[in-house]
């Protein structure tokens, strides 16, 4: 049914609005076809894949949608790009994003904000972010699939908002070599595709050890992960976290969640309520940790080594500001500056104990919550932590508490209201767990009074124990 509605949708988009007006793609190469160097892995021959523009490519510029990197071209390809090319894929286009991946609506891109192909009463919708360009490229059929990055939800949220599949694998499985850092301990390369089978295929090509990435999981551990966390299709225990049943959940999302759970129950799975008490603090902890890491990672953009330097004679002090300060002042947008300031404050000697250290403790509690409810042991831990009474194989939650807002509604939203949208995606990021967003059709009742141009699906999230990526994808397939 989803494939059908996607097909209908693709047709609709091309008839109504040319994808070019949506600003999904920032650079495009005409002939990007690449010869498969490894015939045994030539499974992606003829497939066009869009790459989020914070992942470096030698044949096209990489800007992370920031003025500070305008004019920058990497001398090498990111490992994930190289793997796709070796498998025969053509990397034709670089997809837009929120500057450095900071945002949830892809509106902070330096060049131009990304627009969803969907609309409500004539008002364009948010494509979600920060991998909004990647999601729109897949939704409109401009690309067969796309790479994104997910630090706190940036693959899953735009996938949910654009009606496509978005998968964030376990932290450390996909190489970050050549991925421009936002918050290293959370940054994860993810994939977006029209269906779960295609997302799984892409994941399979990319899921290899990389010696260039110090956080890449070793081959020995990868072997232990095979079949980890359960991957059978029948008789699974599915957990529903109490703490995700929040007031902000809107009616259509709640209905879609209930509908999905009852379908799973009918298919022979058992639905169990579980409690993840640290969820309530997870979002606040994320918005301390991610900016703290960002403030450190972004210190290198000083106009000396990369990208765009302030104009005018080199190092001529303007208003007594040194070259690097002028470059940074001109090069970073408002949201990036806000994060750098927040992060630098959280790490300062007066605040570190109350903010950064506390947030690290919350992160550990969030990880322990998940370890307590999952039947499978966390393969990264030496000994099993205490288990809850009812243990589960996977968790099912909505990806976001509401359907995508219109771009006009966004303008009225405060910064903190914007951060709220990540409430369901951030916990799995803090714990490094695999999480998949699958579009499920909107329940009939919700669709009745809806605009025909509106997104007709709701993103459902499947979360699994660390390393249970295959099982998450397999269960996700049954939700389509
Ligand atoms: N919206 C979140 C943020 O702004 C997540 C971003 C991401 O995952 N890159 O930090």
Automatic annotation (TrEMBL):
Recorded hits in SUPFAM superfamilies, A to Z, give:
Amidase signature (AS) enzymes (SSF75304)
Q: Which GO terms describe its cellular component?
A: glutamyl-tRNA(Gln) amidotransferase complex; mitochondrion
Which ranges carry the Amidase domain? 30-473
> Where in the cell?
Mitochondrion
What are the positions of the active site?
Answer: 52 (charge relay system), 130 (charge relay system), 154 (acyl-ester intermediate)
Name the EC number(s). Answer: 6.3.5.7
- Reply yes or no: does the keyword Membrane apply: no
Which GO molecular function annotation, any one, does this entry have?
glutaminyl-tRNA synthase (glutamine-hydrolyzing) activity
PROSITE patterns referenced in this protein's UniProt entry, alphabetically:
AMIDASES
Q: Sorted alphabetically, which Gene3D superfamilies does this protein's record hold? A: Amidase signature (AS) domain (3.90.1300.10)
Q: Give GO BP annotations, semicolon-separated.
A: glutaminyl-tRNAGln biosynthesis via transamidation; mitochondrial translation
- Enzyme class at the top of the EC tree: ligase
- Name the major location: mitochondrion
Q: What keywords tag this UniProt record?
A: ATP-binding, Ligase, Mitochondrion, Nucleotide-binding, Protein biosynthesis
The UniProt catalytic activity note for this protein reads: L-glutamyl-tRNA(Gln) + L-glutamine + ATP + H2O = L-glutaminyl-tRNA(Gln) + L-glutamate + ADP + phosphate + H(+)
Family membership:
Belongs to the amidase family. GatA subfamily.
Q: Function of this protein?
A: Allows the formation of correctly charged Gln-tRNA(Gln) through the transamidation of misacylated Glu-tRNA(Gln) in the mitochondria. The reaction takes place in the presence of glutamine and ATP through an activated gamma-phospho-Glu-tRNA(Gln).
Assembly and partners are described as: Subunit of the heterotrimeric GatCAB amidotransferase (AdT) complex, composed of A, B and C subunits.
- Which protein, by its recorded name, is this? Glutamyl-tRNA(Gln) amidotransferase subunit A, mitochondrial
Taxonomic lineage per UniProt?
Answer: Eukaryota, Fungi, Dikarya, Ascomycota, Pezizomycotina
